[in-house]
Hints:
Number of helices: 8
Number of strands: 5
Distance between the termini: 50 Å
Oligomer: single chain
CATH architecture: 3-Layer(aba) Sandwich
CATH topology: Rossmann fold
CATH superfamily: HUPs
Strand order of the largest sheet: 3-2-1-4-5
Order of helices and strands: EHEHEHHEHHEHH
Amino acid sequence: MTKKAVVLLSGGLDSSTCVAIAQDQGFEVYGLSFRYGQRDTHELDAAEAVARAMNINKHVIIDIDLRAFGGSALTDNIDVPKGRTSEEMDSEIPVTYVPARNTIFLSFALAYAETLKSDDIFIGVNALDYSGYPDCRPEYIAAFQAMARLATKAGVEGAGVRINTPLINMSKADIIKTGLSLGVDYAITTSCYDPDEMGIACGQCDSCLLRLKGFAEAGSTDPIRYQS
């Protein structure tokens, strides 16, 4: 019997690696992305490209509007921080944090998984490179897992849906090495918080800097384009 998994797919490096890991574990992947009012849609173009390239079973894009609330550099008229050091990134929750975003996304994934009769959700959270984000921590995932068992028909009647976080304790370099070993084409992914109109990465936001550092430490070259 084919196993089904819902994978939260942003079009970035981490979520694309999660797709590959889920497929390697024998799952039939159903991708779930969101048009949530983010400052540009290049990541959705990347998510669609990843879905096609990796031959996932189905890719669903959900429309919600977190820009109605704002409160983040990704959903409001707030400048994206550039050129920060690792120490600065670790010192506080950054303005690129979108309030409750992973809770919202996981809730949709939970609903989708139930309709598919799937026991598994994959999310590419990482506690090492994004330690400033409260909804990327292991204790948060454990709490959501407990809630999911109480809040769903699947949870009440059986074991419920598992929240898989295969990247949570991996460095960015280890994530990249894993993805490359599984054939992920990182050239079609995007990680930038503030790309230009052509979707070319800025190379200076937190996400770009962590990505570039990861490729360097993995002994590989990032295949995407960056602004000069």
